[in-house]
């Protein structure tokens, strides 16, 4: 640090004039507000300035050190070495033995016309440095997590970027689906009803090389068992009574060159499962009532909310089929397992339905709290219905509690009632117990005093009346705070 010909003290204090701008303020006034400790010595090693933080950190009043030589105040002060060598010392940990203080210092010589005329030491407590380090580490972790989430988001293919969610668990699932979309392997989507398995299946299809081909969906639980085989594989003319003239193409043929989505595959009849297994193995089908083999080029995405291994144990699902469709399993988390997405989804659907019904609505804070605390058994599908219900019923600008479906209002009311009952149960027994203890104490004390009166306050006679030992008698005297002197 270079100085002009003014003395060191004049440079620090500048008391000879009134400041007219920030540049004219005495340096001391600036240093007084610095959180770090600052101490300045002149060319003789005499302390000419120390700021209030010097006292705060070292617990030594400034007036006790001003004008004293640094060598006497701190014999091993690093600033003395710096003034001898002219080499600054930066970020060095120092233990001040006589003050029992650990500090991190920067010590720098002060020059004027190439000559050392003093030195300045800036220091802070080690514990403050550790706190800064911990804060920086935490900040870096947050930054790293955000970068990871952003990287996952940027790595997602376009169809997946449209799926709403920022919960880490959900993002991991989304990223996996985006990653495997480009393959041709069978995928099994697991998760509760309403989590968005069809949305995932469509995104996988639209992200694959089959995106220009058909996406055919069939709900295995919605088709009667007698019809599911003909729906999947089609049928020939006259295959059965009531068959359409000329026959019918099945879902697998319609999906040729694209993707077939078998929703609720756990409900597929066991006899149809055997034929599906052949389709997956041979990539060919036969229509019902026909004997011609038809080659197909499809990708199968299956979905279920059921526990397939449990169905296998109960002989309701073929184990060999399970391993065929479970090449790439993806479990989509329930909405209650991704709580930070509840508000995001609620606001998103509110905006969408507001536009649909030509309204401009927002959710009240109370409604958001209710939605966050709800267990969402129907998951995202139920959330969609809930918000649409609220948008339709709301005749103001803010969706309130009364605009929500009855089952959610009832759930909230039951939850509040349950919490109140639990609080009462926690408090009342304790109060009752205290009341009972007070009554017992009063009764026992009254009996004790009555015995004393009957014995005319003769202690030995009172012990006989009460039927207690001497030790117990005096113990109860202290307990009932009775003075017989």
List the helices and strands and how they pair.
Layout: E1 2-3, H1 8-13, H2 27-31, E2 37-42, E3 47-50, H3 52-58, H4 70-73, H5 78-85, E4 89-96, E5 101-112, E6 115-125, H6 126-155, H7 158-161, H8 168-180, E7 187-190, H9 197-207, E8 215-219, H10 225-233, H11 251-254, E9 258-263, H12 270-282, E10 284-286, E11 293-295, E12 298-304, H13 308-313, H14 319-325, E13 328-331, H15 340-356, E14 362-363, H16 365-373, H17 379-393, E15 398-399, H18 406-454, H19 459-466, H20 470-479
Parallel strand pairs: 1-5, 7-12, 7-13, 8-9, 9-12, 14-15
Antiparallel strand pairs: 2-3, 2-6, 4-5, 5-6, 10-11
Helix pairs in contact: 6-8, 8-9, 12-14, 15-17, 18-19
Number of domains: 4
How many DSSP-defined strands? 15
Q: How many angstroms does the end-to-end distance come to?
A: 84 Å
Kindly name the structural category: alpha/beta
Q: What is the CATH topology classification name of the largest domain?
A: Rossmann fold
CATH homologous superfamily label of the largest domain: P-loop containing nucleotide triphosphate hydrolases
CATH class bucket of the largest domain: Alpha Beta
Number of helical elements: 20
Q: Helical amount among residues, as a percent range?
A: 40-55%
| CATH hierarchy: architecture of the largest domain | 3-Layer(aba) Sandwich
Mind describing the biggest β-sheet? 6 strands, mixed
**What is the alpha-carbon Rg in Å?**
41 Å
Proportion of residues in β-strands: 15-25%
Average pLDDT value? 83
């Amino acid at each position: 640090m270079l100085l002009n010909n003014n003395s060191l003290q004049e440079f620090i204090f500048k008391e000879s004039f009134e400041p007219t701008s920030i540049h004219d303020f005495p340096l001391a006034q600036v240093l007084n507000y610095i959180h770090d400790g600052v101490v300045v010595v002149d060319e003789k090693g005499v302390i000419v300035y120390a700021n209030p933080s010097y006292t705060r950190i070292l617990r030594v009043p400034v007036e006790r050190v001003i004008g004293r030589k640094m060598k006497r105040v701190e014999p091993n002060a690093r600033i003395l070495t710096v003034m001898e060598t002219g080499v600054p010392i930066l970020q060095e940990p120092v233990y001040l033995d006589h003050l029992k203080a650990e500090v991190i210092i920067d010590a720098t010589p002060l020059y004027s016309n190439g000559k050392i005329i003093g030195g300045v030491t800036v220091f802070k407590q080690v514990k403050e440095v550790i706190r800064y380090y911990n804060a920086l580490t935490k900040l870096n972790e947050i930054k790293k997590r955000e970068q990871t989430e952003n990287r996952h988001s940027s790595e997602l293919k376009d169809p997946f970027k449209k799926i709403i969610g920022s919960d880490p668990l959900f993002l991991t699932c989304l990223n996996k689906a985006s990653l495997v979309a480009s393959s041709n392997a069978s995928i099994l989507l697991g998760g509760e009803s309403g989590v968005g398995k069809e949305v995932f299946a469509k995104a996988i299809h639209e992200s694959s090389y089959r995106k220009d081909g058909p996406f055919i969906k069939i709900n295995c639980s919605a088709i009667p068992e007698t019809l599911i085989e003909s729906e999947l594989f089609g049928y020939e003319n006259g295959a059965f009574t009531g068959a359409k003239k000329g026959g019918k193409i099945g879902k697998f043929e319609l999906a040729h060159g694209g993707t077939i989505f078998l929703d609720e595959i756990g409900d597929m009849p066991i006899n149809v499962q055997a034929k599906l297994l052949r389709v997956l193995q041979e990539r060919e089908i036969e229509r019902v009532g026909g004997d011609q083999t038809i080659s197909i080029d499809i990708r199968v995405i299956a979905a279920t909310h059921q526990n397939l291994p449990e169905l296998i144990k109960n002989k309701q699902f073929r184990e060999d089929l399970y391993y065929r469709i479970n090449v790439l399993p993806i479990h989509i988390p329930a909405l209650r397992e991704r709580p930070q997405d509840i508000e995001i989804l609620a606001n998103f659907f509110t905006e969408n339905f507001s536009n649909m019904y030509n309204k401009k609505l927002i959710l009240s804070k109370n409604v958001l709290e209710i939605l966050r605390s709800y267990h969402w058994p129907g998951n995202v599908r139920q959330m969609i219905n809930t918000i649409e219900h609220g948008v339709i019923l709301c005749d103001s600008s803010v969706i309130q509690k009364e605009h929500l479906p009855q089952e959610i209002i009832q759930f909230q009311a039951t939850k509040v009632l349950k919490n109140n009952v639990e609080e009462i149960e926690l408090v009342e027994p304790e109060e009752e117990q205290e009341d009972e203890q007070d009554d017992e104490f009063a009764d026992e004390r009254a009996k004790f005093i009555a015995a004393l009166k009957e014995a005319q306050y003769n202690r030995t006679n009172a012990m006989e009346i009460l039927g207690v030992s001497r030790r117990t008698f005096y113990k109860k005297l202290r307990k009932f705070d009775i003075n017989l002197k």
